[in-house]
Amino acid sequence: MRPARLPQQLGGPCVSDFFREIDEEVRRDQLLATWRKYRVLIIGAVAAVILGVAGFQAWQAYEQRQRVAAAERYAIAEAQLEAGERAQALQRFAQMADPDDKAYGLLAAFELARLAAEDGNAQLALETWGSVAEGSAPQAYRDAAILAAASFRIDQGEVEEGEAMLEPLTEAGRPYRALALELSAVAALAREDLDAARSRLEGLQADIEAPAGTRQRAGEMVGTLDE
């Protein structure tokens, strides 16, 4: 009896393609795992920025003892929110929201957008952030609104749209440049663009002006990509 013939493809193109597909699938899973891990951290950092910006703006208004009536209305809305009267608080914030107010009207706009995003009202959230970004508030507040909107869109799966919004924020001199670069790197991971993600993260690592925590996270993410 003649021995059975081995398939000619053993070790050839078909097998190579098979293992390449497995390798690509493993790499894709690694990228998604990295995205899920750091997405929460970075989007949390964005939220902290927004809360910090809004809180500082309110404090400035308080220190100047201006617009006492607006401060009282805002305090009522916050109390309603804490009491679980979310719909009433949302309505009050909507009535107060004014991106050009520079004080509690601006703070109300940020709160309105945040609550709308949490409630799944993407249209209201994005429109409100957009009105702040296009308004006359100082650059830091307008950039904070863009950062929040971009973060929201990326988190909702609109990765390319959110990434495009981040691009101007990565320019030198912009107040949230490091965070925008970090978020854009995570967006690149979501698109499975390993080269773009690595380039942005390595740039952050080398940026001595970036916050230490941002540089540390960038290094951790680069290490994850190298695994």
Outline:
The protein is an all-alpha fold and 227 residues long.
Helices and strands in order, then pairings?
Blueprint lengths: L12 H51 L4 H15 L3 H11 L7 H15 L3 H12 L5 H17 L3 H8 L10 H14 L3 H13 L5 H15 L1
CATH topology: Serine Threonine Protein Phosphatase 5, Tetratricopeptide repeat
Domain count: 1
- Judging by the overall fold, what is the CATH architecture? Alpha Horseshoe
Parts with pLDDT < 50 across at least 5 consecutive residues:
1-28
The main pleated sheet reads as: none
Strand content: under 5%
Number of strands: 0
Helix-residue proportion: over 70%
N-to-C series of helices and strands: HHHHHHHHHH
Quote the distance from N terminus to C terminus.
49 Å
**The CATH superfamily title:** Tetratricopeptide repeat domain
Mean pLDDT score = 77
Give the structural class.
mainly alpha
- Per the principal axes of the C-alpha atoms, what is the gross shape? elongated
CATH class: Mainly Alpha
Radius of gyration from CA coordinates:
23 Å
Describe the structure.
- It is a single chain.
- The protein is mainly alpha-helical.
- It has one domain (36-226): Alpha Horseshoe (Serine Threonine Protein Phosphatase 5, Tetratricopeptide repeat).
- The chain has ten helices and no strands.
- Helix 1 (13-63) packs antiparallel against helix 4 (104-118) and helix 1 runs antiparallel to helix 6.
